[in-house]
Amino acid sequence: MNRTASIERVTGETAIKVLLNLDGGGQAKIDTGIGFFDHMLILFGKHGLFDLTVEAKGDLYVDGHHTVEDTGIVLGQALAKALGDKNGIKRYGTAFVPMDEALAMVALDISGRPYLVFDAALPGEQVGRFDSELTEEFLRALSVHAGLTLHVRLLSGKNTHHIIEAVFKALGRALAEAVRQDERIKGVMSTKGVI
Fold it and tell me: How do residues 155-180 score in pLDDT, each as one tens digit?
């Protein structure tokens, strides 16, 4: 099964293209115009073992909000498309990732029922040119458009860079677990028969 997707989205604020291969080797080519966000998406791909290409042009003269949120939208759409009928996937994934003093937990369910719980205080307002509050906006957009129930919890941390990095790495690892196929699973992992 070819679990890849290519999605393009153009609005008056952004133009975004995402290519996603769920069965890649963690190769990422990212260009959003926001260096720290690029770094986070590279980490997401590496730790999820996803091949990921993101090309984003946005109205950064305003701020990074539209670019980051719309990237979450398009990545979520690509994830949903690459998963197809979701047959044979494990569906659930959880990861705890430490980054120096920071420890983040991400637990998710590819449920078709979008829901985000974001319990992570970010002490700094910015990391580089990335507004810290956009972490939650990205995750919400991803959750809604991929159909994820997504819980993010910070267990410890003081450095904003370390906290956000731990979250993105944990997201990649939890998602890698959830999309993994298991030959013992016949159809979808639900007693309803659909996700």
Answer: 999 999 999 999 999 999 999 999 99
Model pTM?
Answer: 0.96
3-class secondary structure, 11: coil
Which of 112, 103, 134, 99 is CA-nearest to residue 178? Answer: 112
Cβ-Cβ contacts under 8 Å for 12 (sequence gap 6 or more): none
pLDDT tens figures, 89-99? 999 999 999 99
User: What residues does 99 pair with on adjacent strands?
Assistant: 102
82-113: b (≥16 Cβ within 10 Å) or e = bbeebebbebebebebebeebbbbbbbbbbee
How far, in Å, CA of 163 to CA of 89, rounded?
29
Tell me the two tokens of residue 69: 């949120």
Per DSSP, helices labelled H in the chain are 35-48, 65-83, 134-146, 160-179
**Residue with the two structure tokens 């990422």:** 28
